[in-house]
UniProtKB/TrEMBL annotation:
Domain of life where this protein originates: Bacteria
SUPFAM superfamilies reported for this sequence: lambda repressor-like DNA-binding domains, Periplasmic binding protein-like I
Protein name: LacI family DNA-binding transcriptional regulator
Region listing for Disordered, in residue ranges: 306-334
CDD domains the UniProt entry points to: HTH_LacI, PBP1_LacI
The HTH lacI-type domain, residue ranges: 1-53
Length: 334
């Protein structure tokens, strides 16, 4: 830092102010310091800074290693949001999320002097392991689960709210013969979407067909749709967009028109879902807002101001895969 101060012709304190984005630095002075930093290839010594400030500016993130859309996207936006907030991240993957494994991960984070930990918990195994492990820093769970006494703060996109939006949309179009292809039975997102879907239909006195078990994949969606060809419903709610893609593929192969013969909805708004054939009606999850809010909650906890955050609201995106129900005689499905 002293070399930067010498080249820029300013004091050591001025360089420190520029590095910490202090507002009371004249623009021309800031520019000189930044030019000197670039010329010298200066990089801040984070370890030395931590000794002086007693802050590491590091956040630990635990992921299950899942490559599915939700967990993978959450990890990416968390890293971006942490950097925007002035933090670096240390990522650990819990492929076998036992309490012992989580304790080891938390211990490794403590060795790095992390200021807080975010656990991406798609299912109960990860959440239970995080609950059982002890940490001496604030912990935030990203999970579509119900908070229990003693739990750390929990944050997620409102999965149930998104499913209710889809149910209302289909009911509003006049659909009554409905079926849901679920996500994995042990995933919080899948459980929340399924339960809210059924609750919303029950509130409208609509009795759907029995759920078809799924696993987030297009292959399962294709197979499930093939089983519906002999007795088409009004509409299919696929638990995610990949499952919906398989449904659309099977219907296209069989000459079933979407939405003229059957409507199809998904969930996630994955990249390219607006170019499915036809473009898919789905629910968009605002992962950017989730990442920003997660960091705000964690930083508040680090500063001794714990919060109980509200879920991030989803958005219904109506496209060409939904329309009014077809007029046709139907055999009973119950």
């Amino acid at each position: 830092m002293s070399d930067v101060a010498r080249v820029a012709g300013v004091s050591h304190q001025t360089v420190s102010r520029v590095l910490n984005d202090h507002p009371h630095v004249r623009p021309e002075t800031r520019e000189k310091v930044l030019d000197a930093i670039s010329e010298l290839g200066y990089r801040r010594n984070s370890a030395a800074r931590a000794l002086v400030t007693q802050r590491s500016a590091i956040v630990g993130i635990v992921t299950s290693g899942s490559l599915h859309f939700g967990p993978a996207t959450t990890l990416a936006v968390l890293e971006q949001s942490a950097r925007s907030a002035g933090y670096f991240v240390s990522v650990a993957t819990a492929t076998d999320p036992t309490p012992e494994a989580m304790t080891d991960i938390f211990g490794s984070f403590m060795d790095q002097s992390v200021e807080g930990i975010v656990v991406i918990a798609p299912d109960e195994r990860v959440a239970a392991a995080a609950r059982a492990a002890s940490a001496h820093v604030p912990v935030l769970l990203l999970a579509a689960m119900t908070s229990a006494p003693g739990d750390p703060p929990i944050l997620s996109v409102d999965q149930a709210g998104g499913a209710r939006l889809l149910a209302r949309h289909l009911i509003g179009l006049g659909h009554r013969d409905l079926v849901h292809i679920t996500g994995p039975a042990d995933w919080f997102d899948a459980i929340s979407r399924r339960d809210a879907w059924h609750a919303e239909l029950a509130a409208a006195s609509v009795v759907p067909r029995a759920d078809i078990p799924g696993d987030w994949t297009a292959a399962t969606g294709y197979q499930a749709a093939q089983g519906l060809l002999g007795n088409l419903p009004d509409a299919v709610f696929a638990a995610n967009d990949q499952t919906a893609l398989g449904v659309l593929h099977a219907f296209a192969d069989a000459g079933v028109r979407v939405p003229e013969d059957v409507s199809v909805v998904g969930y996630d708004d994955v990249e390219g879902s607006d170019h499915f054939i036809p473009p898919l009606t789905t629910v968009r999850q605002d992962f950017g807002a989730l990442g920003r809010q997660a960091m705000e909650v964690l930083i508040s906890a680090v500063q001794g101001e714990p919060a109980r955050p509200a879920p991030v609201p989803p958005e219904l995106l109506v496209r060409s895969s939904t329309g009014p129900p077809a007029e046709r005689a139907r055999p009973a499905h119950r």
